[in-house]
Design a protein that fits this description.
heterodimer, A: 6-stranded mixed β-sheet, two-stranded antiparallel sheet, B: flat, disordered N terminus
Chain lengths: 207, 292
């Protein structure tokens, strides 16, 4: 797909197509079922010609970061949807991208798993200190994760509103997601964003 | 699903269903909502085979059918033993016929695998390859091999080459089609993921497209080898002195119905045994089939 106007810059460099410096986590996990969990995490490193020992070490480290080191040898079709999505995260992190692009990565998960994954993503974000660009339909998820919340309108996609937020950082400090999400301030902004969205139907948020 | 659902409401019912008569009322077995076709058919299949063999035995022993049309099952076994010893028209032992046929079918099949799979993948990934191969393959694919057999004989003579070429052509089309369909079955998310992880176009083909096509290719291989056996008799119609197809055709000329039926059984059993082997290989190579 080509864009109608404008340009995409990452650190001043023009972006013309997919590349390993921008890691993508997809809505569907998009893992390779013919590879086991570890081999899936190694995939990008293998494509870029890293030696077996080196890429195995990196992959195991990233698997540990998402808490799946015990499942390294498992086939990907035998683990749960939440675990598959974590393998996808580890695979993207293994390439050490400058920015993580996440297109509704938690959309297909049940709500309990989804909340656990949100906490994991925040912890990874804090540990790696990378820029995460996260697209979601869930207002609560957007508020919880974002440092900069961008509310968008549908076709034509326009930026309707921006909010600087710090609920993610608060979670990193206190470690209690429920406390952050039940904070009166969190609820107030949530209602405000929801009102904004309902005033302009079918708004998407990007955080 | 329904049973476990009820078990949550009445936990004891699932643990000791036999002791509590009241709980058997709680776990209601709902019938009429099964998935059409579910369950094992092995027992029924065995019963069917035994029934057919019994019917055959009864019909031939009571003289319902003349021996010329259908000999008794024992006669088939006797003709198998005779053929094994080479005690049939032509004087060649069964093993020799069998060996020649096996060589023709498997050599042609192997040749088809190493050519048709790359061609099919190329048709899937390249617009140019698709443009080149699509018209000839789609044209000859529905033709019956017997229709172009004379042409093959004119071109390749009456030696082994013509026989192998005929079987090869029969195997080629389904394999190429399967490989092409396999390429089309790759999920676009997997390709995008590979690109975003830094893979080149060739790496995407080598490490994503080809592995993802394997289940379809295996299905194509099973169909192709079936086509190979189907074409065998046609291939051995011209100037063959050995081969299961030739043995069957020759026996029919002498009205040796027992040898004809025995030959058919041998071809059928070998083809079935090979298909079972292919299914085992398939489970070992693509265990993720249908679960990816």
């Amino acid at each position: 797909m080509s864009f109608s106007s404008g340009e995409i810059l990452l650190d001043g460099k023009q972006v013309n197509g997919p590349g390993a410096e921008r890691g993508v986590v997809f809505q569907k996990h998009a893992l390779m079922p013919w590879l086991n969990v570890l081999e899936n995490v190694e995939f990008g490193l293998k494509m870029r010609g890293l030696g077996k020992v080196e890429r195995r070490a990196i992959a195991l480290q990233k698997l540990a970061a998402v808490g799946l080191e015990k499942f390294a040898a498992s086939p990907v079709y035998q683990i749960s949807g939440g675990m598959q999505q974590r393998v996808g995260l580890a695979r993207t992190l293994a390439s050490d991208p400058e920015v993580m692009l996440m297109d509704e990565p938690l959309g297909a998960l049940d709500s309990l798993t989804r909340e656990q994954q949100q906490e994991l993503i925040l912890q990874l974000w804090w540990k790696t200190q990378k820029m995460f660009f996260f697209i979601t339909h869930s207002v609560e998820e957007a508020l919880f994760l974002a440092t900069e919340l961008v509310v968008m309108t549908p076709s034509p996609g326009r930026i309707a509103h921006r909010y600087p937020l710090d609920f993610g950082r608060r979670f990193i400090e206190c470690g209690d997601a429920r406390a952050v999400k039940s904070d009166p301030q969190f609820i107030r902004i949530r209602e405000e964003v929801l009102r904004l969205i309902h005033a302009t139907p079918e708004v998407r948020e990007a955080a | 699903m329904s049973a476990s659902g009820h078990a949550e409401v009445v936990p004891n019912a699932a643990v000791v269903p036999a002791e509590a008569p009241a709980s058997s009322a709680a776990v209601r077995h709902v019938s009429g909502y099964s998935v059409p076709g579910e369950g094992s058919s092995t027992t029924i299949a065995i019963v069917t085979v035994v029934a057919l063999l019994t019917l055959w035995w009864v019909a031939t022993h009571n003289g319902w059918i003349r021996d010329l049309f259908l000999p008794t099952p024992e006669r088939i076994i006797t003709s198998f033993v005779d053929a094994w010893k080479g005690d049939i028209q032509g004087g060649r032992p069964l093993a020799e016929h069998f060996g020649w046929s096996l060589f023709r079918v498997f050599f042609a099949f192997a040749l088809a695998c190493v050519t048709a799979i790359p061609v099919g993948i190329a048709m899937g990934v390249s617009r140019i390859a698709r443009g080149i191969f699509d018209p000839p393959v789609e044209f000859y694919r529905p033709l019956p091999p017997l229709a172009y057999l004379p042409l093959i004989v004119i071109w390749f003579g009456i030696e082994e080459t013509a026989k192998v070429v005929l079987i090869y052509l029969a195997c080629f089309a389904p394999l190429a089609m399967a490989a092409r369909a396999g390429v089309k079955s790759v999920m676009i998310e997997q390709i995008n993921a590979a690109y975003s992880l830094g893979a080149s176009k060739w790496q995407v083909i080598r490490h994503v497209v080809i592995p993802a096509s394997m289940p379809e290719i295996f299905t194509g291989m099973r169909i192709a080898i079936g086509f190979g056996w189907t074409t065998l008799v046609a291939a051995e119609m011209v100037a063959a002195t050995a081969g299961l197809g030739q043995m069957v055709l020759n026996a029919s000329n002498f009205l040796r119905t027992d040898v004809v039926i025995m030959g058919i059984f041998v071809i059928g059993i070998v083809a079935y045994a090979f298909d079972l082997l292919m299914r085992r290989i398939e489970r070992a190579v693509v265990p993720w089939k249908g679960r990816g």
